[in-house]
Design brief:
7 strands; three-stranded antiparallel β-sheet; mainly beta
């Protein structure tokens, strides 16, 4: 099953949970995040409303506000600002910063 957000084939599912009282409710967790179905797998929630990732290593820089960078498990490397002008950090605040599966990364300007 290839369900990664980028369709990269890097899926590595770690958890499948089926609700004990309602087997139509299923959660799948992978390196890219988690998705949920409430209709037995006919449709799933979006990867993009649940910003999760597995990081090898996380570093920060000295900007203000500071940025956090990390090499993600099979999803490239990413950076995100530590706070937003809009009261929350959203998927729009994330940016790619390097190559796939980096142990460490830094923001390139």
């Amino acid at each position: 099953m290839d369900g990664s957000p980028r369709g990269s084939g890097g899926d590595d599912y770690h958890t499948v949970w089926i609700h004990p009282d309602n087997p139509d409710h299923i959660l799948l967790a992978s390196d890219q995040g988690a998705i949920i179905t409430v209709n037995g797998g006919k449709t799933y929630s979006s990867w993009y409303n649940q910003p999760t990732a597995q990081f090898y290593h996380v570093i920060t820089d000295n900007q203000f506000p500071y940025w956090v960078y990390g090499g993600q498990q099979e999803s490239g490397s990413a950076g995100v600002i530590s706070r937003s002008d809009y009261g929350q950090i959203t998927f729009r605040d994330w940016t790619t910063v390097g190559v796939e599966n980096m142990a460490t990364s830094r923001r390139i300007r």
